[in-house]
Design brief:
191 residues, 16% strand, 5 strands
Length: 191
């Protein structure tokens, strides 16, 4: 068969869509799995062609709220930049995960991925932070919630507080699922 330069949709488009290319595709798969563990069904696209960027795998009538790009390239001029430019005049937020546009010191690949926030766990944590910012700021005073959690449970560790907030968001999502029969809602990321 002849390669046609088309990107490959692996999982159906959701409110979150993960676009990963090259060796970072495995990272994208792991991020999808980690999100799935907390009830967030993200779409997944294997970007096989960065330039020209094939957009045939996107449902233009039902755009995702977020596209997460993951690449083994610098943040400047790569996949993330192209996707952000493409969606600049639309309501899609693009989260780019790539190497900074600076000199990268020597080190093992695992050490550098950890240092620059490109492991599946760190990427997933940053996605949760984005969900918390969007969802909780939209409906609740996030600082008050963090303060209440800290006082009530005597927790001063930011990671623990964020974990509790994720549980809170999950409970709210479960309520929305039951309350509206699992219909899509504007304030719910779990599809």
């Amino acid at each position: 068969s002849t390669y046609e330069g088309k990107n490959i949709r692996i999982a159906p488009q959701g409110k979150f869509d993960i676009w990963a290319c090259g060796k970072m595709f495995e990272t994208g798969q792991k991020v999808k799995e980690l999100l799935q563990e907390n009830g967030i069904n993200a779409g997944l696209v294997d970007i096989t062609t960065v330039k020209p960027l094939d957009m045939s795998m996107i449902d233009e009538k039902n755009l995702p709220q977020y596209i997460v790009t993951i690449e083994d390239n610098t943040i400047v001029g790569g996949l993330g930049h192209q996707v952000a430019a493409y969606f600049a005049d639309r309501s899609v937020k693009v989260l780019n995960f790539a190497w900074p546009d600076e000199f990268i010191p020597q080190g093992s690949v695992d050490e550098l991925l950890e240092r620059y926030g490109l492991t599946p766990e760190i990427i997933t944590e940053r996605i949760y932070e984005e969900i918390e910012r969007y969802y909780l700021k939209e409906y609740y005073d996030i600082e008050k919630i963090k303060s209440d959690f800290t006082k009530e449970l005597n927790i001063y560790n930011r990671k623990s507080i964020n974990k509790l907030l994720r549980k809170f968001v999950s409970r709210k999502i479960d309520y929305v699922r039951v309350g509206v029969g699992y219909a899509e809602t504007e304030d719910c990321f779990a599809l």
